[in-house]
Amino acid sequence: MNLSEYTYYLVRQIPKGRVSTYGAVAKALGDKNYARVVGLYMNRNPDANTMPCFKIVCSDGSLGGFGLGLPDKIRRLQNEGIQVRKGKIVDFDSVFFDGFQTMYPLKKRKS
DNA sequence: ATTGGGGCCTCCG
DNA sequence: TCGGAGGCCCCAA
User: Fold this and answer.
1) Radius of gyration of chain A (CA)
2) Of A2, A25, A30, A93, which has fewest CB within 10 angstroms of its CB?
3) For chain A, what are the domain ranges?
C-alpha cells in the first residue's frame, strides 16, 4: 500500500456527520509535514464517492479548498448534517474526528 | 490577526 | 530521467 492509498484508507474512517483536518490525517500518516501532500491527494482524486475529501477541512475549522468548488463542498457537508457558517464549520470541536486507526506509523515512504 | 518558515510529495516542462 | 515550482496546510512567533 502506497502513501496515497493509505491516506484514502484513513479518510474513509471518518464517520458520517464528522469531519477531520489535513493536519490530523498527516499526523496519522506519521508526520504533520504531510499536510500539504494530503491536500494534493485530495485535489488529485476529487471523487467524493470513493474518497470523501470534502470531510477534510483546515485545523482552524475553516473550509480549505475543494477541486470541484467550495459551494459543492459545503453542500456535501450539509448533506451529512454538518453546518457551515461564514466559511467555517459550526461547532467544529464536536464534529472533529481524530480517532484514526493507524495500523502502523508511516514515517517514511513505503513502496 | 498576520507572517514566514517548514520540509514532503506531485506535477509539468 | 532530472529539476524546479507549487500545493485543498500547520504552527510558532
Assistant:
1) 13
2) A93
3) 3-93
Residues 70-109 of A with CB under 7 A from strand C: none
Where does the pLDDT of residue A31 fall: very low under 50, low under 70, confident under 90, or very high at 90 and above? confident
Greater confidence (A63 vs A68) lies with: A63
User: What is this structure's pTM?
Assistant: 0.90
Nearest residue to C10, CA vs C1'? A23
How many Å apart are CA A68 and CA A27, to the nearest integer?
A: 26
